[in-house]
């Protein structure tokens, strides 16, 4: 009889606690992506390296729980994010590799945060999307998330925000130094941002100011006798404008401060870098054409007293099918067999890129686009053979089968430049081409 009353009491408690939740309004949204690649010569070597061919997928689900008026809880997870048929493993390391799909990525929660609409603004607290502001050129919201406290205030078309980001992976507690000696500082990293924006019908502009305080390398260790801190000041203005049939957008990121600020002895390193982006597009009936350009300052000597490396192009920004394409690099690896990790990766670093494009939408659901881009390195390491990365021509055709279901096929050809020779003139470079198709469902 005692067990009966315990079970009955447990059931009553469960019902009592779940009743408020079941009464909440729950909204779901998300996407499913399946994309296939065939790339002929990703190493761009002569003789040609191995071709790569696979299909990757991702299911993303965002849930918003309306707890009460003005108060919500938002969660987001990615599920079955992997290459089709890849082996599954619980081994640590190799996250996002195209050869395996780790068990901890089978269902990976990325966002969970509370949103409270207050009489004097909006407060958001928890794990949220980070690294998103202005244009898409320097955004990495798809891959960057972490602890954040954000406050927004809206006044007509004006928006003001202040936020604190806890940098993922940085520890906020002290650790011991070499031979068990006490550490002098915590190994933590934080960003503090303030911004204002104007959202009008024809004009949209804003300015973001960031201060980054990074002490993750400040604690002495056996391999780093004297630690240092990193203190950056970031200025990020942007503008978007629509004037008749012409659309224009631009963004600049300037960083100053200290990349290495030693606590005791050591060679300090100042930070001074610039990144620029601009795009103009004109619409003529069902057709459109435009130009875009990106500059990310390079640094030819990372060990000197000046850190000149510019803020990289974002993982959300994929101007080409082959060069600087986040998804392709993520699943197929870094491009360039002779250049190794110095080759072109998923983010645009140390580069000048210009692109011209033209497209037509003969019917609202069909979009045919042709683009040609040229890229060169801004700086090269000592004895590097050339700055010419190459010229890429892309053709894509996108069709909306349903309003929420789009199918894209594309082909890209890269005329590889001598940048891919690395430091050896005798290395031979060969061109590369890629075929892809992508199915995107949004709900």
Task: Give a structural overview.
The structure is a single chain. By secondary structure, the protein is mostly beta strands. It is globular and about 65 Å long. Mean pLDDT is 85; it is low at 1-19 and 92-101. The protein has an 18-stranded antiparallel barrel. Strands 4-5 form a two-stranded parallel ribbon. It has one domain: Porin. The chain contains two helices and 21 strands.
- Helical residue percent band: under 10%
Low-confidence stretches: 1-19, 92-101
Gross geometry: globular
User: How many helix segments?
Assistant: 2
How far apart are the first and last residues' alpha carbons, in Å? 50 Å
Any idea what the CATH architecture is? Answer: Beta Barrel
For the record, the count of structural domains works out to 1
Q: Total strand count, please?
A: 21
**Mean pLDDT across all amino acids:** 85
In CATH, the topology is named Porin
* CA gyration radius, whole angstroms: 25 Å
Structural class by sheet pairing and helices: mainly beta
Strand count, sense and barrel status of the largest sheet are: 18 strands, antiparallel, barrel
- Strand percentage lies at over 45%
| CATH classification, class level | Mainly Beta
Order of helices and strands: HEEEEEEEEEEEEEEEEHEEEEE
Give me the secondary-structure topology.
Elements: H1 2-22, E1 25-39, E2 52-68, E3 71-83, E4 87-89, E5 100-102, E6 107-118, E7 121-129, E8 145-155, E9 158-166, E10 189-199, E11 203-214, E12 228-243, E13 246-262, E14 269-284, E15 287-296, E16 306-307, H2 326-332, E17 351-360, E18 366-377, E19 388-402, E20 405-416, E21 432-442
